[in-house]
Amino acid sequence: MIKAVNIKKSFGEKTVLHDISAEFQTGKCNLIIGASGSGKTVLQKLLVGLFTPDSGSIFYDDKEMTSMDEEERKTLRQQIGMLFQGSALFDSMTVEQNIIFPLDMFSKMTRDQKLKRVNEVLDRVNLKDVNKKFPGEISGGMKKRVGIARAIVLNPKYLFCDEPNSGLDPQTSLLIDKLISDITKEFNMTTIINTHDMNSVMEIGDSILYMHQGFKEWEGNNKEIIFSKNQRLNDFIFASEFLQDAKEMRMIEAGRKE
Amino acid sequence: MDFFTHFGKYILTLKGMFTRPENARMYWKELMQQCVDIGVGSLPIVIIISVFLGAVTTVQSAYQLVSPLVPLTAIAQVVRDSVMLELSPTVTCLVLAGVSGSKIASELGNMRISEQIDAFEIMGINTKAYLIAPKILSAIIVIPFLVIISMLLAIWGGRTAGMLSGIIPTETFDRGLREGFSGFNLAFSLIKSYTFAFIIASIASYYGYNVKGGALEIGKSSTSAVVVSCILILFADYVLAAILL
């Protein structure tokens, strides 16, 4: 479990996060949603330790990250996997080298064991015959899957995904969502996902945190979100007529249409 | 004020390199890779400019030393000392600031913008130590070798140009090279090379590593890295000459 307590963060005069507290549960897909500029990427970067909060604390299974020294933080980071918005694969390395890199750096496995592990994770993300290809030679969806494979190769306890569906077609988005959700449950990870994608919200939102202009506006899950009375959240989630219709249909399905 | 901000950040960037490596073998691999990139990658341009530097120096020295009282061997001495004291270390390093410096700055800048540096950080790797230190160390190892190669080629270029243009026979040129040779000149040249190598790699790394923004800023940081490196090389050139000569 990851817990944020009274987090505040400013850049210069601009306060980006105001007193955010949240709990992100193990074995669940914890979604952070909100409009562009709402502070969700900053919150995620604070949680992984790329930024330091101005005040407040972040706990990883009751260990406070903000007070850890450099060595403790390094050890913690080896338990964190992250899928970046642009995948952040290393351009100069092949897919295989990208995935094997964390193993080379932190494990004492033999070369054969490492290659076996690379093939295992590539198989887990449904990729074949891409080992020797460079990131520039594969599609956006494949890059995301390689990013996930690299993130999980060290069996992390915590998985962070920054807009995993951005730039992907709807079908590939669904595949990536399902993959992240399956991996989260399979390995009992604490997964935190920043997203704009409403499909993701509805399909894999075990826990959802909605942010608005740096404030925590709403908390719940994908069942509760349909019935939320929060006007800002409804305006954000069900922005189009199509989505409003979809909401009504879901409510009918749930047998709770008023 | 801006200068002090940059200087402070530069010092902090360098200070951040000094930590225990997560895996010494991976650092060694990266160091070797950088040696190849900086050394082998820059060799063709170093060869070309060195040969022509020596050739031009021979022709111009002969043009200026027209007195019958000045022996022909003086041309070789002028070429040798000019090449060793100034042309090879300084001109080669100015060119390397453009070739290797811009490559380092744009490579790190691109890694920063595409979040590859963040990806390393998330894995628990000290990116200053893993990405910057091998670049600086490899430059310090490789650039003095490039300067020595440049010296040899420049002198060979001068000798060949003298022979081809009929200015000075090769035997006379060789005799001139041996006359009044000072080993200190070579040591001075190497001191300059080490200093310039550090400037090239550290300044380029600083500008690349701290890029903010997008593709436009990568270009700007690359240009700034080359301009600042060139100015600092010339400044250090003067300071070293004033102190050591």
What this model shows, in words?
The complex is a heterodimer of chains A (258) and B (245). Chain A is α/β, with parallel strands linked by helices and 258 residues long. Chain A has helices at residues 40-48, 70-77, 95-106, 111-124, 140-152, 170-187, 198-204, 231-237, 241-253, and strands at 2-11, 14-24, 29-34, 55-60, 63-64, 80-83, 158-162, 190-195, 207-212, 215-220. In chain A, the strands form two sheets. Chain A has a six-stranded mixed sheet with strand order 6-7-8-3-9-10, with helices on both faces. In chain A, strands 2-1-4-5 form a four-stranded antiparallel sheet, with helices on one face. In chain A, helix 3 (95-106) packs across helix 4 (111-124). The two termini of chain A are 36 Å apart. The mean pLDDT of chain A is 88. Chain B contains eight helices and no strands. Chain B starts with a helix and ends with a helix. The model of chain B has no long low-confidence stretch (mean pLDDT 92). Chains A and B meet through helix 2, strand 6 and helix 3 of A and helix 4 of B.
Main sheet of chain A, how many strands, which sense, barrel? 6 strands, mixed
What integer is the average pLDDT of chain B? 92
How many individual β-strands of chain B? Answer: 0
CA-based gyration radius of chain B: 21 Å
**Which pair of chains forms the biggest interface, and how many residues does each contribute?**
A-B, 25 and 16 residues
Order of helices and strands of chain B: HHHHHHHH
Radius of gyration of chain A, taken over Cα atoms and rounded to an integer in Å = 19 Å
Count helical runs of chain B: 8
Derived from helix and strand composition plus strand pairing, the structural class of chain B reads mainly alpha
Average pLDDT metric of chain A? 88
In terms of quaternary structure, what is this? heterodimer
Helix amount of chain A: 25-40%
Instruction: State the share of residues found in helices of chain B, binned by percent.
Output: over 70%
Record the strand order, biggest sheet of chain A: 6-7-8-3-9-10
Order of helices and strands of chain A: EEEHEEHEHHHEHEHEEHH
Q: In what range is the share of β-strand residues of chain A?
A: 15-25%
Low-pLDDT sequence parts of chain A? none
